[in-house]
Amino acid sequence: MFTPAVLNLPPYPAQIRHDADSLRGGHEIYDILRRRWVALTPEEWVRQNFVHFLIAQRGFQSSFMANEIGLRLNGTLRRCDTVVYTRSLKPLVIVEYKAPEIQITQKVFDQIARYNIVLGAEYLIVSNGLSHYCCRFGADGYKFLKDVPFYKDLL
Fold it and tell me: Is residue 76 in some structural domain?
């Protein structure tokens, strides 16, 4: 049986199932943004909890959010964990997730900053479910914020 890690996020009623017949042969969680069941890994647990936090606690609209967005960086295909868009579909926020046991280091920030070279989002968020960091990118570089802002405050 899957035992989810306790995260520093409000709980939500996750839809989890065990699918012994799937190719993964394990637990799956329902992703409301992709509208399908996905393998339940520690990183996916963080992603689903954080997405629900953004929607329920910070007023983000699921219709302006997407998980696992592909992009080309130096000729290599990469994937952003979550991208939040403006009403005009310009990338506004990039979110990078790590499993709870993974420390948030400069290497993680370097990764998301590289993605932002392609997308040009104004905000970057990194979370391992226990620690969450948000920064704003402007003319003077990156500035860390005290908390994850409400969607309406980002516009």
Answer: yes
Q: What is the largest CA-CA distance in the chain?
A: 52
Pairing of strands 141-144, 132-138: antiparallel
Q: What are phi and psi of 100, to 5 degrees?
A: -55, -30
- CA-to-CA dists, residue 123 to 69, 92, 137, 144, 150, angstroms: 16, 6, 6, 10, 12
Structure tokens at 43: 């990183």
Closest residue by Cα to residue 83 from 106, 102, 60, 105:
60
Query: Residue 69 is part of a domain; what is its CATH number?
Result: 3.90.1570.30
Residue 4 lies in a domain: no
Instruction: State pLDDT tens for residues 93-144.
Output: 999 999 999 999 999 999 899 899 899 999 999 999 999 999 998 888 889 9
| Cβ-based neighbour number of residue 142 at 10 Å | 13
Tell me how many domains the chain contains.
1
Range of the domain at 111: 16-154
Amino acid identity of residue 1, one-letter, is M
Structure confidence at residue 74 as a pLDDT band (50, 70, 90): confident
pLDDT tens-digit series, residues 55-66 = 999 999 999 999
